[in-house]
């Protein structure tokens, strides 16, 4: 109701025509200036992926590519043959690592989140509030508090320097978020629905498959987007628990661009950086409102 | 007769099992959550009280490591940096976020497009953000070189290599990354403000900027608190952004607590002191989050009492 009232009201349609036009002009100018500031960095880096190296070294990143020297070969080099941390297989290897880490960890943490959220919202038991509290405290726990224990646990399990180890770490860390998301969503499903199903003789799993899952897609999308982008973009765990050829893409980028020594390959590095940004960007554009919803729920609750 | 007895017994067992299913399914999570949240925290805290260096060592040393940590210049610089960075980052992000939200709230065309543009940095990792901005800020590759190339040979823009100014580069990049997030939450708040309130103010003859300043923004102040708390959390945990942007340098001028933790634990073989630094990060988070949690709890109880 409040929203429709607000929509009826046009703040800028007040005052005389001239005042209305100038204020519209100011608003759109500011919006455009900010849009430029936000898009410029990505556009600049994108343009440098096709410029020859001597050109970049001479004039820096902030320059337009020359049509005669433009080339897409730096993309191929970044993907396939660029040397990072001793291995010359380009970004593709680390891309594969990141996918092998992100996809299983996203699926596992989401499945656990769905089940936990279902139990904690629909199968009340004694101290369930405490259980929920402890699980969600994990959302706030800084990674630094878990580094040494994880290093020890991964070592004991023989998962040091493996992608499987990272999947494990991210699944455990992710359960806090997914449980929080799903529990808060399932709370709004009427309890009468569950009661009626139980009277009809449906058990725990049957209610989950027949009632909860069909109602889950909105929160499922939010959770998957949140987990995928979060794990893909994560850096600290990847750097500490893996090394060399087993590292995810974020660590690989720091490995080649952070080291001050050696010859720079700005164009190839720019292409690699764009590649690292693409999966989450794609999900962001495709996921749209679900991305924003996850953001607001994950942040404020 | 005996067969009936057993079948009755199995159904009873089945029923009991069915009753316990939710708790059984929850067990793995419970074990992990308690082990991870409680166990790992206590473990790290215990390490911080020991004399561990390269390897864990159970010798109890009380709060020695904390004293040593606060005695080291690197850590005090890191904490000061966190204060400066956190303050400017939160205020700057709130300011830009509010400005963007108010602009979009003016019934502009292509609203979805503007929102998508302002929010996209949040989808990109801190590593990508930091790397890209380092290239732009660095005098050898970025703005300064471009200005020289355009003929302005005396132009100077080397904040990122300047000890006194490098921290502001981190602040600017941080604001660029997070202001879309503040915009999204504040815009949602603006949309929930009652239009009649604005109309009434307008009939009184107030101008638009004034209405926002005096009427609209003050009514959504709880949203500003919520956004500030989330941003403070980001600031306290900041690590990747600084690593990609400045690696804590030049010198220690942009070092933050999370970088000190990493160095102590994995570069210098000072496990106990690193654990103490990690506990200090947890303390900083608690200082921000506990009062906020208490306040929101108190508020919702008050509202419940009011309605009941």
Question: What features would you highlight for this structure?
Answer:
heterodimer, A: 301 residues, mainly alpha, MetI-like fold, 15 helices, globular, disordered N terminus, B: 308 residues, 13 helices, 76% helix, Sugar ABC transporter permease (chain B), transmembrane (chain B), ABC_transporter_permease (chain B)
What does this structure look like?
The complex is a heterodimer of chains A (about 300) and B (about 300). Chain A is an all-alpha fold. In chain A, about 75% of the residues lie in helices and about 0% in strands. Chain A has one domain (about 80-300): MetI-like (MetI-like fold). Chain A has 15 helices and no strands. Chain B is mainly α and about 300 residues long. Chain B has one domain: MetI-like fold, CATH 1.10.3720. Chain B has helices at about 1-50, 65-70, 75-105, 110-120, 125-135, 145-150, 165-190, 195-205, 210-220, 220-235, 240-245, 255-265, 270-305. In chain B, helix 1 (about 1-50) crosses helix 13 and helix 10 (about 220-235) packs antiparallel against helix 13. The longest helix of chain B is centred in the first third of the chain and has 47 residues, at about 1-50. The mean pLDDT of chain B is about 85. Chain A: Its main location: membrane.
Major beta sheet of chain B, specifics?
none
Mean pLDDT of chain A: 85
Q: Can you tell me the residue ranges of chain B where pLDDT is under 50 for at least 5 consecutive residues?
A: none
Mean pLDDT of chain B: 87
CATH topology category name of chain A: MetI-like fold
How can the largest sheet of chain A be summarized?
none
Q: End-to-end span of chain A in angstroms? A: 24 Å
First-last Cα distance of chain B: 59 Å
